[in-house]
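User: I'm putting together notes for a lab meeting next week and I want to include a structural view of one of the chains we've been expressing. I don't have a solved structure, so I'd like a prediction I can at least talk through. The sequence is below, exactly as it appears in our construct file.
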Amino acid sequence: GLRKLAEQMIIPWKRYEQLTSISIDEMIDMIEENYIELLIIDMDGTLKHYQDGLLECNKEWINVIKEHVKIHILTNSSESYAKETAEELELPCLCSAKKPLPIGFKKILEQEHVDKDKTILIGDATVTDIFGAHNAGIEKTILLDDISVKTKQKQLVKY
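Assistant: Thanks for the context. Below is the predicted structure for the 159-residue chain, given as structure tokens.
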């Protein structure tokens, strides 16, 4: 009941099925038009499938986009679990973030020396990712469907 209520009240800036549903050109336009300097991105269900690991299409997307903007992974997972994905993507990662508390989001903003208004959060969970970003003052949030559902249905698309 509480989760459903939160999902009705917490409205993301944009919604997409999956990360690669955001075309490279569209993401670059979003970055440029909104003077974005940082993407904070969730790991599980967003970049990585729980059983299948980091998806190659997401890795390719990240590798192109990180040429245009700083990217930082934010996850509630432990460092031992997240380390391989962060290293494979060559991205900084803040683990054990305790989302939806704003502390992890704020710590990344401080580390990257970026204002919340120049930041986009991308995640797959309304309560932890979108609400957590809003708690930290980040209004530009992109909600994706959980990738685990999509991979079961074999509906992944490459940008």
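A couple of points you could mention at the meeting. Residues 79-89 form the longest helix (11 residues). The longest strand covers residues 70-74.

User: Perfect, that's what I needed.
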